[in-house]
Design a protein that fits this description.
The protein is of the alpha+beta class. The protein has 2 domains: about 150 residues, Up-down Bundle (Four Helix Bundle (Hemerythrin (Met), subunit A)); about 80 residues, no CATH class. The protein contains 8 helices and 7 strands; from the N terminus they run αααβββββααββααα. A hairpin with a 2-residue loop joins strand 3 and strand 4.
């Protein structure tokens, strides 16, 4: 039995089945990301003045990732256009660039995540705050009575905030340049070997660090899953699924178009995520 409307448009919608399905699916995706964006906006608007973190994310790295996704949007269209022109070899070359861009985006995002999970804020019992990247954990770490013991020392490369800066609330925003401006002196980056027994709180910049980072990891993590999923689909169509080009080229071209529509949505979501999370 042949499935109707796989290549020809339906009379009631003017769309073939797959294209109608992807638009319905994207409508649900808009509601999903719309709810998360709305939550972020409401939380930020409701935050106390000066309490919302700023400057935590690496803007140049985020900019590169934005350019990578924009490039992939261009190549996915050029690949589909090559198929419409009956040039399968050109499509294969161009679409390979799309897949490579997807892999590059995920690698860069993984680097950003690694940077956050190795970036620590250590609050000392005397009120000092040491903020920097993890170099090593020394000693300890064994299991006693079923509980993993903390290290004897934690080594960070970063800066030390004076106790009075933390008391003034300035250490809430881990932006070194702003702290230097407000304190009137240069905060020296150096290596700190901190005894664990003298610490009050040791926490990295994961989603548990503050509300902003919880939203950041939720939004970008969900988006990264969409990038991986879209890349897998595009890769399957480009690879094993390419056999359909010989048997039903028009339907194969429609599959490429539908996967491209999803990819454009993923790119569009990032176009909103980048300025909201990185710049504003």
């Amino acid at each position: 039995m042949e499935i109707p409307f796989t290549t020809l448009p339906r009379r009631d919608t003017g769309l073939y089945n797959a294209k109608l399905g992807i638009w319905l699916f994207l409508a649900s995706e808009v509601m999903l990301f719309g709810a998360l964006f709305s939550s972020y906006i409401l939380l930020r608007v409701g935050a106390m003045p000066g309490a919302w973190p700023h400057g935590i994310l690496n803007v140049p790295v985020g900019t590169v990732n934005t350019l990578v996704l924009i490039c992939s949007s261009v190549t996915v269209v050029l690949g589909w256009a090559a198929l419409k022109a009956n040039d399968f070899a050109k499509y294969r070359k161009i679409q390979l660039v799309t897949i490579a861009c997807a892999g590059m985006f995920v690698c860069i995002k993984s680097y950003e995540y690694y940077d956050k999970f190795t970036h620590y804020e250590v609050v000392m019992k005397d009120g000092r705050v040491i903020d920097g990247h993890l170099v090593a954990k020394e000693g300890g770490g064994g299991v006693v009575d079923g509980r993993r013991q903390p290290p004897e020392f934690i080594v960070l490369h970063g800066v030390e905030f004076a106790a009075e800066l933390k008391a003034a609330g300035m250490a809430k925003v881990p932006l070194i340049e702003r702290l230097e401006k407000q304190s009137g002196h240069h905060l020296e980056h150096k290596e700190f070997r901190i005894p664990w027994a003298e610490t009050k709180r040791v926490q990295n910049y994961g989603p548990w660090h503050n509300t902003y980072l919880a939203i950041y990891f939720t939004l970008t993590g969900l988006h990264a899953l969409h990038v991986i999923g879209g890349a897998l689909v595009i890769g399957w169509i480009w690879g094993p699924g390419a056999a359909m080009w010989k048997t039903d080229p028009e339907r194969y071209t429609n599959r490429v178009e539908v996967s491209g529509l999803f990819w454009h949505f993923v790119d569009l979501v990032w176009i909103f995520l980048f300025p909201i999370l990185y710049l504003l």
